[in-house]
Design brief:
It is a single chain. It is built from 16 helices and 12 strands. The protein is α/β, with parallel strands linked by helices. The protein has 2 domains: about 250 residues, Type I PLP-dependent aspartate aminotransferase-like (Major domain) (Aspartate Aminotransferase, domain 2); about 130 residues, Aspartate Aminotransferase, domain 1. The longest helix is centred in the C-terminal third of the chain and has 20 residues. Helices cover about 40% and strands about 15% of the residues. Bound molecules: pyridoxal-5'-phosphate. Pyridoxal-5'-phosphate binds next to helix 4 and helix 9.
Length: about 400
């Protein structure tokens, strides 16, 4: 139900800062006065009488009805994430991809055109390029960093611009403000996938984005436990465009997963800072290793959009570091297989450091041409730095690097 205007609010003074909202925004406690948020595992809600039920189903009265589209634990998560992103509304979804599905189903129809960065998450490229294409929505993929290329690709029927910053796995940074101006000129909306920075480091609406997409699976949970997602934006847009789709299509966030991510938000800020600090130390060290051709990390001065990244991301580089080792795919596989601490998994945003080979995992479904357009080399390794001791991580990578 998005934020639920008429559903009671937590009794808090006005003007509280993000750190406080991250642990307190939500719903008032139940009659039992619990201090930790309650988990409402219920598929439906009992209505006081038939007439009230009718009013609620007709949207004349706001109340919890059925957990496909309204559940108190999900509402707590939505309110808290909206508070952190600085948006009026938020709608929780079953996954990050279903948040993007909801975005497309809510805003687009056959004959519409989308502009999307060519460097976004692999499944996002598949969703826009292939799945939405089946329904007559055309998508043009453009450079992540060349604002003029976005402007040139605008068509009269362009309705949505979609970007992700920094991108997975190259950590390319887009200029959110510049893209928001291109969107405004075209009377289109700009949506930003804020998965890599999370609102702890970057709040896209502060730079003019209209909508923010999240995979709650990543840093919002932060401990690799559940699949979840969210779409944040203006209350009116959410109520008019997205809530009806959620009601009919049901890409709903389960209350249990909402609860896990809700509690994850409480430590988001300190995790993002600690993991960014470790990632910078690791990236700086990687840059000095002779077996490495190139390191991609926004916190390094060598990163092509270093200054822009620092301005957009609270002076931090976030926690994902990618690098190209000598020896192509075999070299990359050797380094990955020589680790004993890092988890070999394509997930990221966990407290456990993860390591993966993007060309054969997250970007494995792309054609070689699409992969090259996205800049994913066969020798590339992505490390999503967790809370492991950074000296242990260096030693773990050195096991393979030293024997390349
Ligand atoms: C993982 C990811 C997604 C998809 O999220 P799921 O929760 O796995 O569906 C979308 N965008 C980015 C940048 C991601 O890393």
């Amino acid at each position: 139900m998005s934020v639920g205007k008429k559903i009671p609010r937590v009794d808090l003074p006005k003007g509280l800062r993000r750190d406080t909202l991250a642990v307190r925004e939500g719903l008032p406690p139940s009659a039992w006065g619990e201090n930790s948020e309650a988990l409402f595992l219920t598929s439906s809600f009992v209505q006081p009488d038939a007439a009230t039920a009718a009013a609620r189903f007709a949207n004349e009265e706001e109340a919890f009805i059925y957990s496909r589209f309204s559940n108190p634990t999900v509402t707590m998560f939505e309110r808290r994430l909206a508070a952190l992103e600085g948006t009026e509304g938020c709608i929780g979804t079953s996954s990050g991809m279903s948040a993007i599905l909801l975005l497309g189903m809510g805003l687009l129809k056959a004959g519409d055109h989308v502009l999307c960065s060519q460097s976004v998450f692999g499944s996002t490229i598949m969703l826009f390029g292939r799945e939405f294409g089946k329904f007559g929505v055309e998508t043009t993929f453009v450079s992540q960093t060349d604002v003029e290329a976005w402007r040139r690709a605008i068509k009269p029927n362009t309705k949505l611009l979609f970007a992700e910053s920094p991108t997975n796995p190259l950590t390319e940074v887009c200029d959110i403000r510049a893209l928001s101006l291109v969107a405004k000129e075209a009377s289109a909306l700009l949506a930003v996938d804020n998965c890599f920075c999370s609102p702890a480091l970057q709040r896209p609406v502060e730079f003019g984005a209209d909508l923010v997409v999240h995979s709650g699976t990543k840093y919002l949970d932060g401990q690799g436990r559940v699949i979840a997602g969210a779409l944040c934006g203006p209350e009116q847009l959410i109520n008019e465009k997205f809530v009806p789709v959620m009601r009919s299509a049901g890409m709903s966030l389960s209350p249990f997963n909402a609860w896990v991510v809700l509690k994850g938000l409480e430590t988001l800020d300190i995790r993002m800072r600690a993991q960014s600090e470790r990632a910078l130390q690791l990236a700086t060290w990687l840059e000095q290793q002779p077996q490495i051709e190139r390191v991609f990390y926004p916190g390094l001065r060598s990163h092509p959009q270093h200054e822009l990244a620092m301005a957009q991301q609270s002076d931090l580089g976030a926690a994902v570091v990618s690098f190209i080792v000598k020896g192509e795919r075999l070299g990359a596989f050797h380094v990955i297989d020589s680790t004993q601490v890092c988890s070999i998994t394509a997930n990221l945003g966990d407290t456990k450091t993860t390591i993966t080979h993007p060309a054969s995992t997250s970007h494995g479904r792309l054609t070689e041409a699409q992969r090259q357009a996205a800049g994913i080399a066969q020798g590339m390794i992505r490390v999503a730095v967790g809370l492991d001791d950074v000296e242990d991580l260096k030693a773990d990578l050195l096991r393979g690097l030293a024997t390349l």
